[in-house]
Amino acid sequence: MGACVEIPIPGIKIDNMTALFEQTLRLEASDLHLTANMPPMYRIKGKIQALKDHVAYTSLDIKNLIDEILTDRYRQVLESRRSVDFAVSINDVGRFRIAAYYQRGSLSVVCRLLAAGIPTFSSLGLPKSLSKLPYLRDGLILVTGVTGSGKSTTLATIIHEINSTLAHNIITIEDPIEYVHQNNKSIINQRELYSDVPSFSEALRDALRADPDVILVGEMRDLETMSTAIMAAETGHLVFSTLHSRDCVSTLNRLVGAFPAGEQSQIRQQLASTLKAVISQRLLPDVSNTRRLPAVEIMFSTPGISNLIRQGKDDMIYSTIETGVQEGMITMEQCLIKLVKDGKITVETALLAAKNKNLMKQRLLLDSKNETATLTVKKKKWFNR
What we know:
This protein has helices at residues 17-26, 59-67, 72-81, 121-124, 151-165, 200-208, 223-234, 248-257, 264-274, 303-311, 317-322, 332-341, 347-353, 357-370, 377-383, and strands at 5-7, 31-34, 41-44, 47-51, 83-90, 94-103, 106-113, 139-144, 169-174, 187-192, 214-217, 238-243, 275-285, 292-300. It is α/β, with parallel strands linked by helices and 385 residues long. The strands form two sheets. It has a seven-stranded mixed sheet. Helix 7 (223-234) links the parallel strand 11 (214-217) and strand 12. The radius of gyration is 22 Å and the shape is globular. The model is unreliable at 371-378 (pLDDT under 50).
């Protein structure tokens, strides 16, 4: 994250959330941060920027601001758990995902502006191979990455495609509901944590009794939810969920490792037969630093991959993904190289995002030689580090 950049705005004190949300929209910011003893802070083109001459908010100011949009239920959750996630829609402004939490005894709030409408695969810049996921009959599909990597948006796009083209019963369990879907060819029921149901695991058990074709679990946070989601995929449902993990192989390690040692062999057998795909993604700044693009690693469960999962040979999965181009698979390094070749991201960005910087250097140099291209001064600077 770069240093804070001040935006010249006359001395003001914005004292209501609607006005702050409107400001977010005007500034084309992705996020609004409210912290005690600081003015409003906005993330614009990836950088945190402060409103110049805006007075610093006190802890009481922030409490009063968040009180405007908290329902009684979410207020109770915030006080009991000391944090809460929810979403709000503001007329003529947009929909925001809110994370409120206590730090050093004071409230901090982060508000993310959600995209208007639900994007398509092409508008997101996702690989075409992912477009087959909505049409799978059953199995488990995981979208992974760090917070803010676009997991919810990718899942919303897949669910929207199912809703638009297939006659299914879709049940989503989310915390919070970020994208609101309308019934189309499918029936879609969206349940929100704390508002409609107390936990992911309980909502998932309920969903299995509601004649679902497709189930979306916003996040597999605990062992019970993981186990039930795998069982749901085994019994003929198409199940989507997310995990916080860096890549496809670490996703498998985390999922298997969450279970007691005595159960891990059985879980591997179940995953070998039910796991259909893992999409690991992150968002990177484009060459103009005006928007963020997805870089993705994709693993489809081919017979070879399934066999490696079953045998616990996770160390061989990466090379299988790398050679699985015909099946639509791609490693993160291959994706980064393609984004550089297509002129969408800089070499610097690719190297910072790569798991193995030296390997990326070698492959980008080799690629340049194959195309009889010469490295730019900027590329040379990075390769000489």
